[in-house]
Amino acid sequence: MAAMQWIDIGCNLSHDSFDDDWSEVVDRAQDHGVVQLVLTGASVEGSLRALELARQRPGELTATAGIHPHQAEDFNAEAAQQLQALHRNPQVVAVGECGLDYFRDFSPRPAQHRAFEGQLELAIEASKPLFLHQRESHDDFMAILKPVRDRLGPVVVHCFTDSKRALFDYLDLDCHIGITGWVCDERRGLGLKELVPHIPANRLMLETDAPYLKPRNIRPKVKTHRNEPQWLPWIGGAVAALRNCSPAELAEQTTCNARQFFGLNPDA
């Protein structure tokens, strides 16, 4: 029987916590069956770094390019031009991380709206998938996304942790859903556990959001607080149990979904 293969669709490998050992982190992921990683770009600088890393491990790594709502005030004409240039690179497989975040409001909401709208236009222009972030801003997020949805290609709402209403709103817009280690958290993940079975099989993808959201179900426990893509199978195991399927079935389905969504080469 072939070994299970997993794809981490959201890993912040350009985070400074990985500066000294990022390649070893990728090696450990490979050893645990995580065969491809999509590196999240959350700022112009972070997107450039993600692409730089992806170029050093082609096939195994690809990148996204975008500006997170926390940095929305940095989105201007110059930033848009820099992102356009990044999107012309074939190793940049999606626009984002972009969207809205009212939980922290690190950028004023009008700036978040402008940055989100601007990056939706970039995705339309580049004909690339969208990697979206939404936290405590669902109604405004939908009001911005829905009118242009029919002009966009594939869309994933990453690190989904919201309500049943939000989930079905996104599914009605033909969005994919990214599930993280939040589902492994016995304190915060109870609501998400109830919703995971409702996600259609062909709309589900998995991610670690490393170095954040380390799964709390890892056994034996590890001392580090830093999450790594090597632990994606722990997320997969939790999701498989909730969906009453085997981890092997889930790995096959979510890997197929990710490759189709991002245009990843299975033979890389």
Helix proportion: 25-40%
Oligomer state equals single chain
How many angstroms separate the termini?
20 Å
Q: What general outline do the C-alpha atoms trace?
A: globular
Order of helices and strands: EHEHEHEHEHEHEHEHH
As residue ranges, the low-confidence spans are none
Report on the structure:
This protein is globular. The chain has an eight-stranded parallel sheet. The longest helix is centred in the middle third of the chain and has 18 residues, at 109-126. 48% of the residues are buried. Helix 3 packs parallel to helix 4. It has 268 residues and is an alpha/beta fold. Helix 4 links the parallel strand 4 and strand 5. It has helices spanning 22-31, 44-56, 77-87, 109-126, 138-145, 164-172, 190-195, 232-242, 247-262, and strands at 6-11, 34-39, 61-65, 92-101, 130-135, 155-157, 176-179, 204-206. 38% of the residues lie in helices and 16% in strands.
Brief synopsis:
With 268 residues, the protein is α/β, with parallel strands linked by helices. It has helices at 22-31, 44-56, 77-87, 109-126, 138-145, 164-172, 190-195, 232-242, 247-262; strands at residues 6-11, 34-39, 61-65, 92-101, 130-135, 155-157, 176-179, 204-206.
